[in-house]
Design a protein that fits this description.
220 residues; Rossmann fold; 7-stranded mixed beta sheet
């Protein structure tokens, strides 16, 4: 990237900025402090060794809804905004910092660059990341009732990131923007960008994106 290229980036978070599915890793971080039953139930919906997880994945395909992700939110039910923010800050410092992809951070932290995090991960985690790195953000929102998490989504950003980006492009009259992501589901978001960066872990992954002619960041 040189000085003539875009200085406004939309950036994915999970497996792009950090080697982490931040929603599941955060819930796992919280669940570890709970009782054995909670830890066992979370293992059943999140571990690749659990037969229930594969049944849920099949159910996903039939229903079009991410059931493991929806069920994971139930483990946060009853937590207040302060509880969630406090745990997310601890999670960021104790877990996520060590998972950072430094190759990606060098793009979004370049002087003069404005970066907006666009993530379907949950608000407490993305807010903690954004605050620590002085970034703007848009994320999924946890529903609250009487000041407590209900275990459901108020807003799910899955499949919506490109719509948020389109709105910001219009509101800010942006003519050139960049996108950094690893997600195949971000195809429409990548299409919006004049500067396209795809995070990959092997050369074979280039094939999916080749018609968009992006640049690639191969993680080491």
């Amino acid at each position: 990237m040189n000085s003539s290229q875009s200085t406004f980036f939309f950036c994915d978070v999970c497996d792009t900025l950090y080697r982490s599915n931040t929603t599941f890793d955060f819930v796992r971080y919280v669940v570890k402090k709970k009782g054995l039953l909670s830890r066992l139930l979370f293992w059943l919906i999140s571990s690749k060794a659990s037969p229930l997880l594969y049944a849920l994945i099949l159910w996903n395909k039939l229903s079009g809804k991410d059931w493991p992700r929806q069920m994971a939110l139930q483990f946060l039910r009853g937590m207040s905004h302060d509880d969630l923010d406090r745990e997310a800050t601890r999670f960021y410092h104790e877990f996520l910092v060590a998972k950072a992809n430094s190759q990606v951070f060098q793009y979004i932290q370049k002087p003069g660059t404005t970066t907006v995090l666009l993530s379907s991960s949950i608000n407490p985690v993305i807010k903690a990341i954004a605050k620590a790195n002085n970034l703007a953000y848009y994320s999924s929102e946890i529903a609250m009732k009487d000041g407590k998490a209900t275990g459901n989504f108020e807003l799910d950003m899955t499949g919506q990131k490109h719509l948020v980006a389109k709105r910001l492009v219009v509101e800010r009259a942006l003519t050139d923007v960049g996108v950094i992501t690893d997600n195949r589901s971000d195809w429409e978001l990548v299409q919006l960008a004049s500067e396209r960066w795809i995070v990959i872990t092997n050369e074979r992954q280039k094939e999916f994106w080749k018609s968009l002619h992006p640049n690639f960041i191969l993680l080491k």
